[in-house]
């Protein structure tokens, strides 16, 4: 079967700093893969290379077997590759309904319509409302985003990505900063993601990694150190060394 | 946590776009000069023209978040287009206005390729630079533009073949007011459309646009072109109602004054520019009577006070007094 998303020999350097070195991996359709590694290992850089925010110096990115290395980020989104951000990147003065409706409008090809009012696009507003309701955000869908609780903002990050109807979803620390006590809604949302959806998520919290991932990719110094099942990774000596080592210095 | 229905969400969105009583009252009030101040209809028409110009700048500054210090470029282009067309023998006002909008819009589209690639100080300098370039071109090509003497011999035909542009400015004000209404109606539709929503999103967080599949540059290019065309309409109107065009239509001062008006009235509120134009133009008219040399002193003072005490402009300050029922 063709991989939903794959990278072949990705290289990227900033000056003399190698942030990605010969990165090769494949995400089969419906995968739940976790990307872990200490700070500075190049995890977010890899996401940026995959989504097109950064252009690799060498190597290729393929979505469903099609090379997308040279496509601009917004075109990759249209091909079904979506992402969320580690630090909330939202629209503070818009409310969740407006923001998600905008994403749906773009997907339906009407975001350049300057003549008809937004509510005239019933289907788009209803779909946006449905996405927000599925994440439990419908009660706050008219509240400006900057007034939402932090956990709700994390859910809205996910809502914006889901509204693009992705086939592959890259989540950059979806639970970052959410207190354990409030993380239930977010975990429920992650568990409810369609089984067809291919997911790669960066995570620091090993409990979350072991809960959601079927496979774990470990990065260190811009390279993939090792990849394997959670059980394999848990007992891998190289991985233990990295984490124990970083703990000793940290 | 309570659940809401999609239909209520739709109603809620629709309610935000309804006409407010104060909006209707404003348009009724625009008719007052005909009755109360017939001697000032010329001033009123200049205010209406400036208001159109201000609405066009608000679309890019207030809604899309692009600050321009060269918006007079498009105003002047529209003015010279309408003026030259009339001088060449075609003085029909409405078609002249259409051509003015087209020429300004085309130039906006062309320069838009550069403008949407830069931000912040670079953007201000690029728009300023393009404005200076065009000003000096018009200054140098005096065989066409009349240079410092301005464009003489502009004759405008009767509006709709019936209404002469009289000395009192009755036709001029009616014409400019009708255009202002048209432009505001159009801008109103635009800001409440998905396109308008995308502009607000760009203003809020441009870097989040490509991850939701939207090219912010393409959207900004569109609005920059539209704003340029509207500015061209304003310039064309000035040329037609005064039957004269000079270099000041292209000048930096006009761009700067316009930004001042928008800051006074309030950005991103559609009527902020209109209110700013009214306040600025009336203040200039009154102050220039009192002291023709130093009247900018008072504009400066007003600007400092407004920006200090009501940072969102006069309209923003008024909006804070009355809590919005839709929020």
Any overview of this molecule?
The complex is a heterodimer of chains A (250) and B (327). By secondary structure, chain A is α/β, with parallel strands linked by helices. Chain A has a single domain (5-244), classed as P-loop containing nucleotide triphosphate hydrolases (Rossmann fold, 3-Layer(aba) Sandwich), CATH 3.40.50.300. Chain A has helices at residues 43-51, 73-78, 96-107, 122-134, 150-162, 184-191, 206-212, 230-235, 237-249; strands at residues 5-14, 17-27, 32-36, 58-63, 66-67, 81-83, 168-172, 198-202, 215-220, 223-228. In chain A, the strands form two sheets. A six-stranded mixed beta sheet of chain A has the order 6-7-8-3-9-10, sandwiched between helices. In chain A, helix 6 links the parallel strand 7 and strand 8 (198-202). The radius of gyration of chain A is 19 Å and the shape is globular. The mean pLDDT of chain A is 91. By secondary structure, chain B is an all-alpha fold. Chain B has one domain. Chain B contains 15 helices and no strands. Chain B has helices at residues 6-15, 21-29, 32-36, 41-63, 72-87, 93-115, 120-140, 142-145, 170-191, 194-205, 216-242, 252-265, 272-290, 296-309, 313-321. The longest helix of chain B is centred in the last third of the chain and has 27 residues, at 216-242. The interface between A and B is large, with 53 and 37 residues.
Main sheet attributes: strand count, strand direction, barrel closure of chain B: none
Distance between the termini of chain B: 19 Å
- Radius of gyration of chain A in whole Å, from Cα? 19 Å
Share in helix of chain B? 55-70%
The class by helix and strand makeup of chain A works out as alpha/beta
Global outline of chain A: globular
Number of strands of chain A: 10
Q: Catalogue the unreliable spans of chain A.
A: none
Could you state the order of secondary-structure elements of chain A as H and E? EEEHEEHEHHHEHEHEEHH
Strand % of chain B is: under 5%
What is the assigned CATH homologous superfamily of chain A?
P-loop containing nucleotide triphosphate hydrolases
Strand content of chain A: 15-25%
